[in-house]
Specification:
0% strand, single chain
């Protein structure tokens, strides 16, 4: 074998390796995409289970108690706690507004702001 033939084989092998690297990168991207889809679907399943589990338990309890039909709209909801930016009614009554004397220039500056 001559040096020229060896160089040709070497370039062919380099091209083959580059082609395989491209395929590997493509397959890794596909794998990452599918992993992301699996994670998303697992999250969806978890959320679904959180909703379905209480309903199923309630249905089972109703069947054990002997009720023939169950209406999901009659289930008891847990009261949610909310935070309001509005002051409480009692706090409004306790508030006293004190008037602070201002000069004419101060009033103009306040209005301009």
């Amino acid at each position: 074998m001559s040096v020229r033939e060896l160089e040709l084989r070497l370039t062919e092998k380099d091209e083959d390796i580059a082609r395989r690297d491209g395929v590997i990168k493509y397959l890794e991207k596909e794998l990452d995409s599918r992993d992301a889809t699996i994670r998303h679907l697992k999250n969806e399943i978890d959320m679904f289970r959180q909703v379905v589990r209480p309903i199923t338990q309630h249905m089972m309890n109703q069947q054990l108690q002997g009720e023939a039909e169950w209406d999901p709209s009659t289930r008891l909801r847990t009261k949610r706690q909310a935070i309001s930016a509005e002051p409480l009614v009692g706090a409004l009554l306790e508030l006293t507004i004190s008037k602070i004397p201002k000069t004419a220039k101060s009033r103009e500056l306040i209005k301009a702001a």
